[in-house]
Amino acid sequence: MNSATLNVDQRTREEGEEKNMMNIVIVAVIVLLLSLREKEVKTSRLWVLPAIIAYWVLSSVVNTPLTVGNILLYIVFLIIGCGIGAWRVHLEQLRIHPTTGKMMSKGSLASSMLLIAVMVLRQLASQWDVHHTVVSLSNALLFLPLGSIAARRYFLYAKVQRFQGRGV
To answer: How far from 100 is each of 40, 96, 97, 115, 116, CA to CA, in Å?
Structure first.
């Protein structure tokens, strides 16, 4: 290959990385705006997002070979994600709207920043190298938001049930 071809390939790769980082910035702004506003908790729909994310994660992981090490890494990151989700729901504010009587929830800045940090780490890991270990780590990082969102939704449901059971 000549140097002109290498320069074009490098420039194309750099432009792709810039677009990916711009996508992360846009998603981060959207996550912050959506998570910091107060919204109604609809317990009948809490399962939808974890199901969509589980499908997305599993379809991303199916392309990599499943070794014992990969499976253990996925389980560890899923457990860590569940812990993060439990911590995120602990930070959320839950109240009953005085005029409508609906259950309202408002996220915290800390939980939103944690989710954004996971997205950035995943993006950085995918840009490092195509070596098997980095690909496995990159795929394992997908299990963090899956565990976090699934656990957050589960614990939010339990919190709403306790809140409504007390008659507050």
So the answer is: 10, 8, 6, 31, 32
pLDDT band at 168; cut points 50, 70, 90: very low
The β-bridge relationship of strands 39-40 and 103-106 is: antiparallel
> Is there a contact between 91 and 110 (Cβ–Cβ < 8 Å)?
yes
Contact 64, 135 (CB under 8 A): yes
Q: Please provide the size of the chain in residues.
A: 168
HSE-CB at 109 with a 13 A cutoff on CA atoms is: 0
For the full predicted model, state whether its pTM sits above 0.85. Answer: no
Kindly calculate the radius of gyration of the chain based on its CA atoms and give it in whole angstroms. Answer: 19
